[in-house]
Predict the structure.
Amino acid sequence: MRRHNRTLFRTARAILRDDAEAEDALQEAYLHAYEAIGNYRGEAKLSTWLARIVANEALMRVRKRTRRAAIVPLQAAASEDEINEIPDDNMDDSPERSAQRSEMRRLLEVEIDALPDDYRVVFVLRAVEELSVEETAEALGIPQATVRTRLFRARSLLREALASKIDLACEEAFSFAGERCDRIVAHVLERMK
C-alpha cells in the first residue's frame, strides 16, 4: 500500500476533487483489490490494476453524488479562502521560497480542479503521476489517442490560466504527507481484520 498510496490517492483526488472523499475511496479500493487479488492475472502492472480499481471507486462516488445532487440542493461552493492548504514539509528552503512554492501549488491545485472532469483525470495521471499513455488508457478504459488529446487540451487550458508557472509547481501538486499515508494504511489494515 505504501508503494502505491500517493499515485492512487492522486488518482482518486483528481476524480473527486476532495481530499477526505479521495482517502475514503482509496481505502475502499484497497479492500476491493484485497478481495479480488485472486483474479489479478498479471496482464497489466499491479499499479495499473490498482489505479483502475481506484478510478472505478471514485467514479462510482461521483455518480452517487450526482444522483443525490439532483434531489438535494447544492450548498454554496467553498471560496478560495476556505480551501485547505497542504503544508510544505521541506524545511531546507528559505521561508520565502517555501511560501512561493506553497502558493504556486495551491494555485495549480485550484486550476487543476477547475479543468473539465475528463481532462483533469488524464492530466493528473499523466503529468502529475507520470503514468505512460498506455497505463493511463488502461486505468481509465479509454483509447490511447483519447489520452493524448485530453492531455494536450488540459495542458493548453492550464497554460492559459497559469502561463509559465505551471511547470514549476507541477511536481508538488497534491502532496501526499506521511501522516495521510499512515492513516490510510492503518484504516485498511484495521478493516481487513
Observations:
- The chain has one domain: 5-73+92-192.
- The chain is about 70% helix and 0% strand.
